[in-house]
Design goal:
heterodimer, A: alpha+beta, Cytochrome p450, five-stranded mixed β-sheet, three-stranded antiparallel β-sheet, 14 helices, globular, B: alpha+beta, Alpha-Beta Plaits, 3 helices, 3 strands
């Protein structure tokens, strides 16, 4: 990994040896707890500079307090999200939409897409989501007393919901999971290759739906209008790629981290099984304790922020897993309290770019937990196995072997 | 009790309406409708929970005597 030198304007006393990619506990670790590992930053200053805090080895400022992350992510004029993070891996420069657009262009596309993933729309999708969860879990329950939750439930569940949303057949599920894994966790050869495959796939799907419209997400996009015109091919691609990238890994990881917690905390597990009405609130607490995404912004101008000389072009990291362990925002932030009421967690970010899929993600997580607990008796991590966790841009869980024999 | 709605800060998390759907009404995109909210006697606990779960701090509890009145 190339490490850029610390820029001259960064005072040396503000540089800290911390990184979501290279700090202890961030590499794939059996029985790891990467969320607890990053919470240690709260012993330090509210903002510092990390010399190597992106996949490409770039330095970023790190904002630790929830209050300050809220300020950064709400202020899109000063902190832009236009980074072309996906297309730059291909040596190109087009935004994922709406994530990598700033207002006012952002609002136009956001308003176009919001109704497709609104709380109301998600209520319509709910029966199909629940049916999918039940089918998968029944199959697991019928075939033994142990399984790998990630491989057998979390990924097939979340990816098939996503495929249905896009109007794609289930039989391609393994292919998509493979692309997503290569893209998010692959090496320098696999990642751009996966990115190219995904772009070609989205382009082809858009062409197909233009010719033969059906009732699905991509047809809606290719037929949609903004400001009295159809979307350009690049805009359609930007939306398609974002939906693909954002929907694949994150919800599966959230379900995995949640079930891993319950497997290690049998009292909480039994409480939720006995009183399923508590699951909705509990899911918010699990999202607070185990969020998955680091959000990065680019400064559009020089600004002194809480004593830090942020200069135009600097990267600013707002890691949700850091905000969510801020003792100034949450009482006993390192304790999982499934009945926590005051819970303004940042798992889906703050500001206008709040995760567009958050309502669907929440329903999937809640339904996944409800149906799992209703169908699988008291479960633990299987003896002599260890869930492998990892840090990075998106925190993840490679495997989770549960046992209920 | 009254809830002051800072509409411009709402980003559509919908945490409020998940807690108290009868108190917090959303538009078709999932964002809060404009205008402060007078909370009925029986709904105060849920309404307060909803307001206190807003990640953007867009909902402010107003418990001044006038608001209670």
């Amino acid at each position: 990994m190339a490490i850029n030198p610390v820029p001259d304007h960064v005072p040396s006393e503000m540089v800290r040896d911390f990184s979501l990619f290279t700090s202890p506990g961030m590499a794939p670790t059996p029985n790891g707890d990467p969320h607890a590992a990053v919470a240690c930053v709260h012993a330090g200053p509210p903002i510092f500079y990390s010399p190597c805090n992106t996949r490409g080895g770039r330095g970023t400022w790190v904002i630790t307090r929830a209050r300050d992350q809220r300020r950064v992510l709400q202020d899109t004029e000063t902190f832009s999200s236009h980074r072309s993070i996906f297309s730059s891996a291909l040596g190109e420069n087009w935004p994922m939409i709406p994530l990598e657009l700033d207002p006012p262009a952002h609002g136009v596309f956001r308003s176009l897409l919001n109704p497709l993933l609104s709380p109301k729309r998600v209520m319509v999708l709910e029966p199909a989501v629940r049916e999918r969860a039940i089918t998968l879990i029944d199959r697991i329950a019928a075939s033994g007393t142990s399984c790998d939750v990630m491989k057998d439930f979390a990924f097939p569940f979340t990816v098939s919901i996503f495929l249905r949303l896009l109007g794609l057949p289930d039989h391609r599920l393994d292919t998509f999971v493979g692309w997503a894994k290569d893209l998010l966790h692959g090496d320098d050869v696999k990642r751009p290759a996966a990115a190219r495959t995904i772009v070609a796939f989205i382009d082809e799907l858009a062409t197909k739906r233009r010719k033969e419209p059906v009732d699905d997400f991509m047809t809606f996009i290719v037929q949609a209008q903004v400001g009295g015109r159809r979307l350009t091919e690049e805009e359609v691609r930007g939306i398609g790629v974002l939906v693909f990238v954002a929907g694949l890994d994150t919800v599966a990881a959230a379900i995995g981290f949640g079930l891993a917690y319950l497997a290690r905390n049998l009292k909480d597990q039994e409480l939720l099984r006995r009183e399923p009405d508590r699951i909705m609130l509990a899911a918010e607490e699990l999202l607070r304790a185990y969020p998955t995404v680091q959000i990065i912004r680019v400064a559009t101008k020089d600004i002194d922020f809480e004593g830090a000389p942020i200069r135009k072009g600097d990267y600013v990291s707002c890691a949700t897993m850091i905000a969510n362990r801020d003792p100034a925002e949450f009482e006993c932030p390192n304790t999982v309290d499934l009945a926590r009421e005051e819970n303004r967690h940042a798992a889906f970010g703050y500001g206008p770019h709040r995760c567009l899929g958050s309502h669907l993600a929440r329903r999937e997580i809640v339904i996944g937990l409800e149906e799992w607990l209703a169908r699988i008796p008291a479960f633990r991590i299987k003896k002599a196995t260890a869930p492998i966790t990892s840090g990075g841009h998106v925190f993840g869980l490679e495997n989770l072997i549960l046992d209920w024999s | 009790m009254r809830i002051i709605v800072h509409k411009a800060k709402c980003q559509g998390h919908a945490r409020c309406s998940a807690q108290a759907p009868d108190v917090f009404k959303l538009d078709d995109e999932g964002y809060i409708l404009p205008g402060d909210i007078e909370v009925a006697e029986g709904e105060q606990r849920l309404a307060s929970r909803g307001a206190r779960s807003c990640p953007e701090r867009a909902l402010e509890l107003d418990r001044t005597p006038a608001a209670r009145g």
